[in-house]
Specification:
Number of domains: 2
Structural class: mainly beta
Radius of gyration: 17 Å
Distance between the termini: 31 Å
Length: 200
């Protein structure tokens, strides 16, 4: 479980085909986190994707992404030098600064536009049709692991307002129109939608 509050920007050091029978990709991640404080088997959100630490390195760790994860997320496009948002898993007693996040990507969006707005920016993303019923103005969504508040939404897209801190302390400043992003809908909205669907 995560909160969508990014605490470090990591970098992909290497991305190579996994040697396991199931295929996939092994990623080596460089981070400012202390590797000694991260146990093997720990869950870390990598730009919104929950992955398990399989090995520690001098300045980071290794994780494995399965073929299914590659199909459903942006990880297939990651390569050496790619910057990613990182968040360690939530512990009981931690402050919930964003919203509850699983780290399970619901779909891919595309950056439609990036416009300056005051001291920050307004970003608009395409929205997979199946996620549209789960978004509402003032509701939450996770974009590449970042907890954001929806400012506009229709059946095909949504917009968010980005403050300068979020712009400089996440990978949003790396994004350009046409880029793909990982999206995860608010878990409470998902459960409400399911309950309403069952009552019809």
């Amino acid at each position: 479980m995560f909160t969508g509050i990014v605490t470090d920007i990591g970098k992909i050091v290497a991305a190579r085909p996994s040697g396991s029978a199931g295929g996939g990709v092994e990623l080596t991640v460089q981070s400012g986190f202390d590797p000694a404080a991260i146990p093997l088997g720990a869950s870390i959100a990598h730009s919104g994707v929950c992955l398990t630490v399989t090995e520690r390195t001098a300045d980071g760790w290794k994780v494995h992404a399965s073929p299914e994860t590659l199909r459903l997320t942006t990880i297939g496009g990651w390569q050496a030098g790619t910057r990613i948002n990182l968040e360690r898993s939530l512990r009981l007693g931690d402050e919930l600064g964003g919203h509850l996040v699983f780290g399970h990507v619901d779909g891919l969006g595309t950056v439609e536009s990036i416009e300056p707005e005051g001291e920050g920016y307004r970003l608009r993303f395409t929205l997979p049709p199946e996620l549209a019923p789960l978004l509402a103005v003032k509701g939450s969504i996770t974009v590449d692991g970042i907890s954001l508040t929806v400012t506009e939404v229709d059946d095909q897209s949504f917009a968010v307002a980005i403050i300068p801190h979020s712009w400089t302390h996440t990978t949003l400043s790396d994004r350009r129109p046409g880029d793909l992003v990982n999206l995860e809908a608010d878990m409470l909205a998902r459960y409400v939608a399911r309950q309403l669907g069952q009552k019809r």
